C-alpha cells in the first residue's frame, strides 16, 4: 500500500522521532539518504522500516539497495515523504532503525590492541560538531570514539547527516566520564588534553603510543575531572588575537597529528 | 525612545536583513553579540546602529562597550529584541553595519610580503563552514582569506556567528576565481590543491614558502580551473572506507601543517 496522505500514522510516527524524547521512548532513530543507508547496511545496523519515494530518487541504484534489506519497505508519494525528510534535497529514502549501544566489553577488546587510537568527546553540544568529528575519526582510523556525558543525543538526525555515513563506520561508545577515565587509565593510554596553560605544543609530544585525545565542550573546554587525569597536556599554536577553534577543527588537527607521527614512523 | 513593539519599523528593517536580497539592497548586515561587537569595534567595522536590551545582558561591560561606539544606540524591550535575534541565548546586543569589501590593492600589498600564507575557498556553500574556516585562519595567522565565486554570502549572520569574531580579524577578499588565480600566480605563490589523484601527502611538501591553500566546495571539491593551475597537488591520508572530510576540518589540518613546518623551521 502506497502512502498518499501526510496524515498517515506511520508518517507521523517517523516525524515524532525528530524529537529526542520520542526517540528515547521508542529506542528508535531516523536514517535518511542513500549513502547513509548503504553504510548502515554494510555496518549491519538494525533497520526496521524503510520509506521510499521513487519520484525523488537521484540515482539508478535505489531499488537495488532496497532489495538488500529484509525489513518492511513502504512506498510514499512525494508529499508525505517531504514531511518526513529533514533535508533540503531529499533523495527518496528514509528509514527507522533501532537504537543500539555497544557495550564496554567491546571497548575493552579495542583497548587491548597495540597502540590504540581513541577520541573522547566530553559533553558535546552541537550535533553537527559530533557528526564532523565522526567523519574525521573515520578518515584517520580512530579505533573508537567515546562520547561522555553528552548534551546532544548521538542518534540526533543531524549527527547522522553531518557524519555522511561515518556514524555507522566508527565504533562509538557512550559512557560516563568517570567510567571512561578509569577504563582508559587501566589500559595505560595517554590521556591528551588541550589547554592554553602549558608550554608543550601538541606536535612536540609522542603520539605513537596508545593515546586518547580528549575534547571538551564548545563553550567551556574540558572539565576538571579530565584535566586532572590527563597525562599529556598540550596547546595548539594560536597566532591571532583570539584563543579558540571550532571543536571539530581542533579535533581533526590533533587526529591528523597522530596519523602524521605514526605514518612517518611507519607504524601505519 | 525605547522600542516596545515588535511592529516597530526599525525592528522590521533589521529582521529583513536576515535575507540576502535585503542585505544586498541596503548594503548592510547584522552583527549580534557582545564578543562580536567588541571585535567589530577593534577592527574598525562601520557599525551604523546598535539595538540593546539591558534585561538580556549577560555580563557587566555592555554599557562600557556601547559607550565606545559613536553611532545611534536604541534601547529595546525584550520582545522586539528577541524578534531580531538569531541566537538561542541572546545577550542583548545586536547591530546594523555597512557592508565593506576590501579592494585588491590591499591584497596585492599582503601578497608582496615574505612567504605569504593565504587560504582560498571556492564556491563554499555553508555559512557555518566559512565561519569556522575564518576561526582557523585567525588562529594560524593566515594573511588573507580569498572567497571565490561564493554560494553563500560572506555577510550571512551565520558566517559571523560561527566565526566568533574572526570575521573582523582576518583580512577577507571576494574575487572571481580567474582573477584570484592570476593574482596569486603573478606573486609566485604555490597553489596547493587537495586531491586523491596524487602520490604526495600534504605533510611531505614544503609549505614554508609563500603558499595558498585552495579548498573546493563541500559537494564537488575543486573546479578544473584551480586543479589545472595548482602547483602542488597533495592528498590527505584516508585510512577508513570513506574518502572525505568536512571542508573546514580539512582546511584546519592543512593550515596547522603550514604552522607546524614554519614553527619547526623557526620561521614564525
Gap between N and C termini of chain A: 52 Å
Q: Which two chains share the most extensive interface?
A: A-B, 39 and 38 residues
What is the top-level CATH class of the largest domain in chain A?
Alpha Beta
Run of helices and strands of chain A: HHEHEHEHEHEHEHEHEEHEH
- Seen as an oligomer or otherwise, the chain set is homodimer
Would you mind describing this structure in some detail?
Two copies of one chain form a homodimer. Chain A has 268 residues and is α/β, with parallel strands linked by helices. The first copy, chain A, has two domains: 9-98, 60s Ribosomal Protein L30, Chain: A, CATH 3.30.1330.30; 104-264, Alpha/beta knot (3-Layer(aba) Sandwich). Helix content of chain A is 37%, strand content 18%. The first copy, chain A, contains eleven helices and ten strands. A six-stranded parallel sheet of chain A has the order 7-6-5-9-8-10, with helices on both faces. Chain A is elongated. The termini of chain A are far apart. The model of chain A has no long low-confidence stretch (mean pLDDT 94). Chain A binds chain B through residues 128, 132, 135-136, 138-141, 162, 164-166, 169-170, 201, 203, 236-242, 244-246, 248-253, 256-257, 259-260, 263-264, 268, and chain B through 128, 132, 135-136, 138-141, 162, 164-166, 169-170, 201, 203, 236-242, 244-246, 248-253, 256-257, 259-260, 263, 268.
Amino acid at each position: 500500500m502506497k502512502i498518499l496522505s501526510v496524515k498517515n500514522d506511520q508518517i507521523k510516527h517517523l516525524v515524532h522521532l525528530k524529537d529526542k524524547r520520542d526517540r528515547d521512548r521508542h529506542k528508535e532513530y531516523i536514517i535518511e539518504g542513500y549513502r547513509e543507508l548503504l553504510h548502515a547496511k554494510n555496518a549491519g545496523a538494525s533497520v526496521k522500516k524503510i520509506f521510499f519515494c521513487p519520484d525523488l530518487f537521484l540515482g539508478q541504484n535505489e531499488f537495488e539497495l532496497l532489495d538488500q534489506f529484509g525489513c518492511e519497505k513502504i512506498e510514499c508519494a512525494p508529499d508525505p515523504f517531504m514531511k518526513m525528510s529533514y533535508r533540503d534535497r531529499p533523495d527518496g529514502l528514509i528509514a527507522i532503525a533501532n537504537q543500539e549501544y555497544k557495550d564496554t566489553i567491546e571497548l575493552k577488546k579495542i583497548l587491548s590492541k597495540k597502540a590504540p587510537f581513541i577520541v573522547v568527546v566530553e559533553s558535546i553540544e552541537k550535533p553537527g560538531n559530533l557528526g564532523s568529528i565522526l567523519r574525521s575519526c573515520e578518515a584517520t582510523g580512530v579505533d573508537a570514539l567515546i562520547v561522555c556525558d553528552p548534551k546532544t543525543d548521538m542518534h540526533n538526525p543531524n549527527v547522522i547527516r553531518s557524519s555522511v555515513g561515518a556514524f555507522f563506520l566508527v565504533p562509538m561508545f557512550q559512557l560516563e566520564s568517570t567510567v571512561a577515565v578509569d577504563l582508559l587509565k587501566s589500559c595505560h593510554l595517554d590521556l591528551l588534553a588541550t589547554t592554553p596553560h602549558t608550554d608543550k605544543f601538541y606536535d612536540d609530544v609522542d603520539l605513537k603510543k596508545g593515546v586518547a585525545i580528549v575534547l571538551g565542550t564548545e563553550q567551556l573546554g574540558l572539565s576538571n575531572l579530565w584535566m586532572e587525569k590527563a597525562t599529556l597536556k598540550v596547546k595548539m599554536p594560536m597566532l591571532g588575537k583570539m584563543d579558540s577553534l571550532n571543536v571539530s577543527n581542533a579535533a581533526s588537527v590533533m587526529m591528523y597529528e597522530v596519523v602524521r607521527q605514526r605514518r612517518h614512523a611507519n607504524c601505519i
